[in-house]
Amino acid sequence: MNLLLPVTAALAGALVYGVTGVLQQRATHRTGNSDQLGFIRGLIRQPLWLLSTIGSIAGFALQGLALGTGPIVLVQPLLVTGVLFAALTGFALAHRPVDWPLMGSLLLTAGGLAAFLLMARPAPGTDTLTLRDVLPLAIGLFVLLLGCLGLGLRRHGLSRSLSFALASGIVYGVTAAVAKVTIGEFQSGGLGAGLTHWSLWSLVVLGPLGFLLNQNAFREGEWVSPPLAVITVTDPLVGIGIGVLWLGESISGTPSAIAGEVLGLAAMALGVWLVAHRAPHLTPSAEPDEAEQQSESRAVQRR
User: Fold this and answer.
1) Average pLDDT for the chain
2) What's the whole-model pTM score?
């Protein structure tokens, strides 16, 4: 099986997701405190947000190409590199020198990812998923989302942000699996089969839902680092779980392989967490114009 195309497409998608994630996070903090309708209107009015959203669509297309040509247990972990690209984007936009602790975190994340893939040796399964097969998955998703949203709506600040981030990561992971099934239907049955299959219409709901939860996670938290880490780790873990349990994909199950896989995932999660906390674009700071206004105000007060 040639893995060059899915690996390249997944890494390209991660690059796009990383860059657009930074831009979207900046846009969400400029909308002010308003209701959901006002929040959406505020985002739409921002050219930066619109441009980054178009980029996210391109990233999803690249992810779809990767899922259509490779197993989900390979594609989803590669998307974790998006947080690395986001960190580098933050350095570039902030015009800051290299932060060596961050570079160590990047190496830890990449090493954990490489260790997982090396030990797991993912193999493809089937792209078929019937409604009867997916019913337990749908029920589990619904219960988890209700729990996350219920907790988030009762909390404020960081707790609400993390609740929305967990919900977004779950939806993104399920969306990846459903997208793989949809692509398989188009490939095997043609245009007619793809357009009439339930998975396509599930994407119409899941895609915008995950995106909206993502934007709210960035908006509600004072710091973007915790929700970014939660989304980045939850998405591939959910995707891997669905790939193995529902799509018949396989990973090595020997005791040594399982130990290596667990350690690799743990290192990857720790690395992502460290990257998210060290990345300059995740540090809350005032916008340039606000900083200038505050400086002028302090100067007037001193006079």
Assistant:
1) 78
2) 0.71
